[in-house]
Amino acid sequence: MDNGSEPTVVVDDLHVVYRVYGAGGDKGTAATALMRVVKRQRRPSVREVEAIRGVSFVVNHGDAIGIIGRNGSGKSTLLQAIAGLLPPEQGCVYTSGQAALLGVNAALLDDLTGERNVVLGCLAMGMSPQETKDRYQSIVDFSGVGNFIDYPMRTYSTGMAQRLRFSIASAKSHEILMIDEALATGDANFRAKSHERIMQLRGEAGTVFLVAHNLAEIEASCNRVIWLEKGKIMRQGYDVPAIVDAYLEATGGEPRKREKPHDTDHVASG
Amino acid sequence: MRERARDQGGPGTLTDDLALPEVDDAAPPAEPLAELAARYRLRPSAARPGVFAYAGQLWARRYFIMGFATARNVAMYTEARLGQLWQVLTPLLNAAVYYLIFGIILGTNRGVPNFLAFLVTGIFVFNFTQRAFITTSRVMPDSLPLIRALPFPRACLPIGYVLIELEQLVMAMVVLTVIVLATGEPLTWYWLLAIPALLLQAIFNIGMGLFLARLGAGADDFSQLMPFLVRTWMYASGVMYSIQTIGTLKRHPTITYILQVNPAAIFISLVRNAILQSQRLAWPGSKPYDAANCALYDLKGAHLENSAYCHGTLTMSQLWLFGAGWAVVALVVGFVFFWQAETRYGRG
User: Fold this and answer.
1) What is the pTM of this model?
2) How many domains would you assign to chain A?
3) Where in the sequence is the domain holding B159, given as residue range(s)?
4) Inter-chain contact A230–B37, Cβ cutoff 8 Å?
5) E strand map for A110-196
6) Residues 102-121 of A with CB under 8 A from B
7) Shortest distance, CA A9 to any CA of chain B (angstroms)
8) Is residue A13 part of a domain?
């Protein structure tokens, strides 16, 4: 770690709690609901899910951080908290500027046409109407949705919708950029195009976070990796291949084949 | 061990195997992280701006708010065969139902001149507030995916929803103009006063919408209750009857006064007095006091026209003052109340 570098994101003992309504455990009839009110019980169907449980780290200017972990380990939640979209229950996230999150669930308005979504997305990111007009064509071209731009987004395939979302969100350069599985369902052609775009954005941005289940993508793009397990940091560091291998070892995946084999025995001994 | 580690089935299967110590190659500096952040002038990502800065941010997103409202409005009827025609049909059908029940079956017209125009104006004006209240009390839970995807001042959402209703109101006003002219009311310069009256109502709705959006963000129970509260309010606001003609109310001037100055009644009266000459001329105090004529109204209680000769409880200028007052109070209180919880809306 270069001590002279400048931190852009500081995560200080972050806890994030979701409140989930309608989880199981209730017969769901009016009579049981009445008994609950009479007995002054809390709704059993309200569950608190601690998605992030005490995470701390410091990220410096120029870092590209890969976040790995199994489904439900808190990767997306961590990014949403860094972007300020999910309020922390405890602890704090400090950033040097507004972090932009490109995610699979970057919900656009499904019943509106692609065209409306492009315009509204740009305006919501804080562009002026003129800027929006100027960028419109390049966003549509990049997404490659073609004639579907005039159709409501609910008619899009998953991949098409994701391509359009990525195109909108990446139209602006951001100081802190976070990419959450944004490219998982795109076709090969689009993936190549968007990889290029990410590299370009990384050049413009100070800091990039990347969540991906594709570990090759992480190794290719990131100089540092954080391994999350049940809302806590399992391992983190700059030795990306070693941590990726340890992660594969623990989750039972096949070890990655690389051209230059890495020394991983201090982890593999478990 | 290895066998279990391969099991990726349910959650929680790997905890024991993964009980490695946390290995942190990029150890954070020794100083407390909060101090480090302060030293490099980093700001909390979920920080709430000052109330004026927040208003500035909202102003910067004005194109987003307007685009959001227009787009939602266009999309609202895309699934219907008749499409945008429903923007006109909905208020028309509303008016027809209320006229059937209150005008013909129940006969609440009790001496109100030009009752059809009186009723339809009341319904259309109240409907604006009613729709705004009900939709804004649901806006935060409904927009949770959008809130968790993009950072923008959250007040954009309730304000956008009120603007959607405002656009619908403009359509309803076109229908209303046709109905009112068809009932024989003359077109006068007074009609222009409907515009500032409706603008004040829109400001009131935005303020209340912000207030209700925060209340509705907490628990769903509130938005379930909202339609009943609003309907009760409608029956108390003289939409389908004239507050002054209720016999028992004449003996309780305080209650009459309270009903008359409630925001819904104020905005309805302002618009009625603007576009209905029959109402304007019958407004208490609009003609010089004449004891004999006023007594006639007091005795029979049914000839609203004669009330013009009585002393009014509210003059026209007092109506405007109340309208402006409600709008400003609602906007300030609603805005501050909404802003206080700005960073908590994403939690759900």
Assistant:
1) 0.80
2) 1
3) 49-294+308-340
4) no
5) 176-180
6) 103, 105-107, 109, 111-112, 116, 119-121
7) 8
8) no
User: In this structure, is residue B2 part of a structural domain?
Assistant: no
* Alpha-carbon span A13 to A210, nearest angstrom: 21
Note whether residue A180 is domain-resident: yes
Q: In a 3-state reduction of DSSP, which class is residue A101?
A: strand
Tokens 């809306």 — which residue?
B345
Span A131-148, pLDDT tens digits? 889 989 988 888 888 888
CB contact under 8 A, A126 and B68: no
Contacts for B139 with CB less than 8 Å, ≥ 6 apart = B157, B158, B161, B209, B213, B216
Q: Which of A19, A123, A126 sits opposite B67 (nearest CB)?
A: A123
Q: Which residues of A touch B74 (CB under 8 A)?
A: 112, 116
Beta bridge partners of A57: A11
Q: Look at B26 and A99 and tell me if their CB atoms are within 8 Å.
A: no
Q: Is residue B120 part of a domain?
A: yes
Q: Which residues of A touch B27 (CB under 8 A)?
A: 1
B window 211-250, beta carbon within 8 A of A: 220
Q: How many domains is chain B partitioned into structurally?
A: 1
- For residue A204, what are the domain limits? 61-88+97-268
**Which residues fall within 8 angstroms of residue B26, CB to CB, at 6 or more apart?**
A1, A57, A58, A224, A236, A237, A238
- Domain presence at residue B241: yes
Put simply, the chain A residues between 76 and 95 with a CB less than 8 A from any chain B CB are 80-88, 92-95
CB contact under 8 A, B45 and A123: no
Tens digit of each residue's pLDDT (9 = 90 or more) over A60-110 = 887 888 898 888 888 888 888 888 888 888 888 888 877 777 765 555 677
Q: Are A150 and A164 in contact (CB under 8 A)?
A: no
Q: Select from B6, B20, B151 the Cβ nearest to the Cβ of A84.
A: B151
Report yes or no: B7 at the A interface, CB cutoff 8 Å. yes
Residue A133 lies in a domain: yes
Mean pLDDT by 10 residues, chain B (348 residues): 38 42 52 77 79 91 89 76 77 83 73 83 92 91 78 90 91 88 88 94 96 86 86 88 67 80 93 89 74 64 64 81 96 95 77
Question: Is the distance from CB of B272 to CB of B279 less than 8 angstroms?
Answer: yes
Q: Would you tell me which residues 157-216 of chain A have a C-beta closer than 8 angstroms to some C-beta of chain B?
A: none
Q: By the CB < 8 Å criterion, does B53 face chain A?
A: no
What is the C-alpha to C-alpha distance for residues B174 and B213, in angstroms, rounded to an integer? 29
| Cα A121 versus chain centre, distance | 18
With contact defined as beta carbons under 8 Å apart, do A77 and A86 qualify? yes
